[in-house]
Design goal:
Blueprint lengths: L1 E5 L20 E2 L2 E2 H11 L4 E6 L4 H6 L4 E2 L2 E7 L5 H13 L5 E5 L2 E3 L3 H11 L3 E7 L7 E2 L12 E2 L10 E9 L2 H4 L9 H11 L3 E5 L4 E3 L3 H9 L3 E5 L1 E8 L4 E2 L4 E3 L2 E2 L4 E2 L4 E3 L2 E2 L4 E2 L4 E3 L3 E2 L4 E2 L4 E3 L2 E2 L4
Parallel strand pairs: 1-4, 1-7, 4-6, 9-13, 16-18, 16-19, 17-20, 18-21, 19-22, 20-23, 21-24, 22-25, 23-26, 24-27, 25-28
Antiparallel strand pairs: 2-3, 5-6, 7-12, 8-14, 9-12, 10-11, 15-16
Helix pairs in contact: 3-6
């Protein structure tokens, strides 16, 4: 089975980190996020994937000039304008010549979901489309998916009001689709799979879903991106004190500095006696002597924080 990986978004929630690079090319535990996704796909027998691209597509093409990563052969479908989820899937499927059932995944979702089991469930139910579900404490920001005992989707409720969701199982961003689903998607305009295609399939009894307690993280926000990295964190000392943090290649940690529960990307400088706690420092950024970052500061690529400056929850350079 082949896969479509959705990586076309601009990553606005992760700005300023994504002003110069797509979010799926940001490092997670020292490797691009997209490689974590491809590695998981490969572990379930996926050998070919088409990347559905929109924002800064050259970053992916240049990173994998051989057209391969993590044992998965890559092809690229570059949208000239945003087509939304279903539109992007349709475009990628046609570009890659997909003519059988295939998997769709979001490129910023990190999970150890049993994809093999999801495909088997899809085939057993003879579904036209199957959604992986995951439980969350507050489902009001997601697509909620109630099902019957057989797993048939009864409704597809996008972002219900707080306290009114019929279940805490949400759309986990991994799908198995028959090729016929593509024929349902109109061409030439933006089409949402969550708001248009899935409700249509549910109304016809052709949409199924399977819940799982597998690890799942949408890494598209600074807080979630930091959590994803800290899963790979190590405790150690590099010229200063580095505690439960991920430190990239070529990073300079000044004498007397303190880095805790943070990500410091390649080529960044943390000056003497600076303090970085629970924050993200982009590549080649420079944290001046005695400066402090706390409360999930996000410092963009190459940005300099003045010596002695104290910041809490700041994003620099400022984003709108």
């Amino acid at each position: 089975m082949k896969a479509v990986v959705l990586v076309g978004g601009e990553g606005t929630r992760l700005r300023p980190l994504t002003l110069s690079v797509p979010k799926q090319m940001l490092p997670v535990g020292g490797r691009p996020m997209i490689e974590r996704v491809l590695e998981w796909l490969s572990s379930h027998g996926i050998t070919e994937a088409v990347l559905s691209l929109g924002y800064r597509p050259d970053a992916f093409i240049e990173a994998y000039p051989s057209g391969e990563s993590c044992g998965v052969a890559l092809s690229y479908a570059v949208e000239s304008s945003p087509l939304d989820t279903a539109g992007a899937i349709r475009f990628a499927a046609f570009e890659a010549g997909l003519d059988e059932a295939f998997v769709v995944v979001n490129g910023d979702v990190l999970t150890d979901l049993d994809l093999t089991g999801l495909v088997a469930f899809h085939r057993d139910r003879r579904a036209e489309a199957t959604i992986a579900l995951t439980p969350v404490a507050d489902p009001s920001s997601f697509g909620v998916v109630p099902t019957d005992e057989a797993g048939k989707v009864e409704a597809f409720i996008e972002k219900p009001p707080a306290g009114e969701a019929p279940t805490n199982l949400i759309n986990a961003g991994t799908y198995v689709l028959e090729r016929s689903v593509i024929d349902r998607v109109p061409s030439g305009r933006r089409v949402s799979i969550e708001r248009e295609t899935f409700p249509e399939l549910a109304a016809e009894g052709r949409l199924f879903a399977l819940g799982s307690d597998a690890a799942w993280l949408d890494a598209g926000t600074p807080a979630a991106y930091l959590r994803a990295n800290l899963a790979y964190a190590e405790t150690g000392t590099v010229a200063g004190s580095v505690i439960r943090s991920v430190v990239g290649v070529g990073v300079e940690i000044g004498e007397g500095s303190w880095v805790e529960s943070s990500v410091v990307m390649d080529g960044a400088v943390v000056g003497p006696r600076a303090r970085v706690v629970g924050s993200i420092v982009g590549p080649r950024a420079n944290i001046g002597e005695g400066a402090t970052l706390d409360g999930l500061c996000v410092i963009g690529a190459g940005h300099a924080v003045d010596a002695g400056l104290g910041l809490v929850g700041a994003r620099l350079p400022a984003v709108i």
